[in-house]
Design brief:
Radius of gyration of chain A: 23 Å
Strand content of chain A: under 5%
Shape of chain A: elongated
Order of helices and strands of chain A: HHHHHHHHHH
Helix content of chain A: 55-70%
Largest sheet of chain A: none
Structural class of chain A: mainly alpha
Oligomer: homodimer
Largest interface: A-B, 55 and 55 residues
Number of helices of chain A: 10
Chain lengths: 213, 213
DNA sequence: GTCTATATGATGATAGAC
DNA sequence: GTCTATCATCATATAGAC
């Protein structure tokens, strides 16, 4: 019985026809709804009608604010950029001892990833079909391996003789782990996961020398 | 000018109307085409018409072999299972010294992931919308962390005193890194990446004791 | 089993009233 | 800026000839 033309689940409460459905602007609600639905079901599986219903706006309004559905996706990715927050994670960090440094980095990264959970889901889902997204991903990886490496170097300055290539490998191993931990829907105890990972990165398997080749 | 009804880009070469377009069975070509297109553009963005054209079959034939488009996806996932090959990676492995063991594990995992590149792409793309896929992913993670942990324990038997929880953390760190390395489109030198990761897992940051807290 | 033409419904986008 | 009704197109799926 649901009509196949555009309708709105608007409240029947009063005669007030216009405005007011939520405190936020209509445009913001559209972006929120689209972000949530794109993350959950993917870009193509999400209809503009569903976005309109979730945002509690008439479906015509979407195309007043955004020329096309694809432009709506582009606006989400550009206006709600996770890269900015991820960069801030490293930039605002003081120089600490290695363990505290890695723990702080790890928890902040995971926090940022989980704070932008929907964005991450969209990036992961669409990076094979949208070249711009694939490029973003690649740059993010390169950049943050570099950032973590530089930071670890500062942290270790003058206290060790580990070659930079190895430090970079530690940074990469760390970042890749954080990515997977961040991707997993419900890591039961992210803090414990990060702690154990940091232990591995600091000490490795802790073999006696005889066990090495 | 392209007709909007179902057509086939079939060869005009002869009067032979039926059969023969390729050596393989039509059903197999449909599965191949769907797998490739689902991986590249996603499930919803791929039309059955596109699948038919790529497979060089009339579009009606798809629904002779598969009741629905979703059933086609399910057939791909069940008939071309990457889990079997991944399990074999660990099962057929001899007990070796830790470094050789991790290197062999790593290269075989990456080989398996790259051999099933399209399947991996599909799993990654759709695991948030299809519950069965999400479950597969979760089980794969749990199972293989367990497999690697057990294997490392055998490898280390009697030669060390590392607690099992730490071994498990090493196994998890290893697997998560392999997953990301496997996901990345074109890792320039996968072997070097694996080598460096193994070095990190075996020795960590190699700090002097004074650098620990 | 293979192929063609078509039904049925949904989808992105628009026109135009308010 | 907000809302409604509608269009043109395209997608999955079917019917039925060969």
């Amino acid at each position: 019985m649901s009509p196949h033309h555009c309708v709105q689940a608007g409240s029947d409460m009063a005669a007030s026809k216009k405005k007011e459905p939520g405190a936020e602007e209509a445009r913001t609600r559209i972006l929120d709804a689209a972000q949530s639905l794109f993350a959950a079901h993917g870009f193509n599986a999400t209809t503009t009608k569903a976005i309109a219903e979730t945002a509690k706006v008439p479906c015509g309004l979407i195309f007043y604010y955004f020329p096309t559905k694809k432009a709506l996706l582009a606006s989400i990715l550009s206006e709600r950029n996770i890269l900015v927050e991820l960069r801030a994670v490293v930039d605002t960090l003081h120089v600490l001892d290695p363990r505290t440094a890695l723990m702080t980095l790890g928890t902040r990264y995971i926090d940022a990833l989980r704070h932008h959970k929907e964005l991450t889901a969209i990036l992961l889902r669409e990076f094979r079909s949208h070249d711009e997204i694939a490029t973003q991903f690649h740059e993010l990886r390169e950049e943050h391996v570099g950032l973590i490496t530089s930071y670890l170097q500062e942290t270790l300055r003058g206290r060790h003789d580990t070659p930079i290539q190895h430090i970079q490998a530690v940074a990469r191993t760390f970042l890749y782990n954080l990515i997977v931990i961040g991707i997993i829907e419900d890591p039961p105890e992210p803090l414990r996961l990060i702690e154990e990972t940091v232990d591995v990165l600091l000490g490795g398997l802790r073999l006696p020398d005889s066990a090495h080749i």
